[in-house]
Amino acid sequence: MSGPEKSAMRATGRCLCGAVAYQVHGPLRDVVNCHCRQCRRTHGHMAAYTSVRRADLHMTETRGLKWYQSSDAARRGFCQECGASLFWDSLDRDSIAVAAGSIDEPTGLKTIRHIFVADKGDYYEIDDGLERLPKGHGAS
Ligand SMILES: [Zn+2]
Q1: Any idea what DSSP says for residue 64?
Q2: 84 — phi, psi (to 5°)?
Q3: Which of 68, 81, 94, 113 is nearest to 14 (CA)?
Q4: For residue 12, which of 48, 50, 110, 137 sits 20 to 30 Å off, Cα-Cα?
Q5: pLDDT, tens digit, 9 for 90 and up, residues 36-62
Q6: Whole-number Å distance between alpha carbons of 20 and 91
Q7: Which residues lie closer than 8 Å to 130 by C-beta, 6 or more apart?
Q8: What distance in angstroms lies between residue 18's CA and the mean position of ligand 1's atoms?
Q9: CA of 59 to the centre of ligand 1 (A)
Q10: How remote is the CA of residue 19 from the centroid of ligand 1, in Å?
């Protein structure tokens, strides 16, 4: 790294094994917890996502990166070595959702809302006082 790229770097992250790693060279949205069925199935529970501009996401290791077309509108990026779920990439947006748990700490982020609460699992409650939206994203 050198010059402007280094100074603009806001975050780094990786999967469990390191076969997928990235840097973020721009602002990160605060974290939104998604309770939809797809997120719960692929993450094992609700998914905590920040979001960054696609152009600000710089992959530094892609050896394990594989994409799964999870719907007509989006694909999910995961590590085929360790199974980590890392990215949700909606094809009609210029941003990409990055799993908050993959970001190196301190992240400087906070959780601001829950989405797709209408689809949440029946095995837990949401009682942290944060905004709850029945469906999708109030902000992306
Ligand atoms: Zn991995």
Answers
A1: T
A2: -65, 135
A3: 81
A4: 137
A5: 999 999 999 999 999 999 999 999 999
A6: 21
A7: 111, 112, 113, 114
A8: 5
A9: 13
A10: 5
Q: How far apart are CA 53 and CA 93, in angstroms?
A: 9
Q: What is the pLDDT of residues 3-36, one digit of tens each?
A: 455 547 899 999 999 999 999 999 999 999 999 9
- What percent of the chain has pLDDT above 70? 92
Cα dihedral sign, 63-75-84-81: negative
Which residues share a beta bridge with 99? 49
| Stated pTM of the model | 0.91
Domains observed in the chain: 3-120 (2.170.150.70)
Per-residue pLDDT at 137 exceeds 70: no
| Tokens representing residue 11 in the block | 């975050």
For 96-135, give the DSSP string.
EEEEGGGBPSP----EEEEE-GGG--TT----S--EE-SS
Q: Distance (Å, rounded) from C-alpha 112 to C-alpha 125?
A: 17
Q: How far does the centroid of ligand 1 lie from the alpha carbon of residue 85, in Å?
A: 9
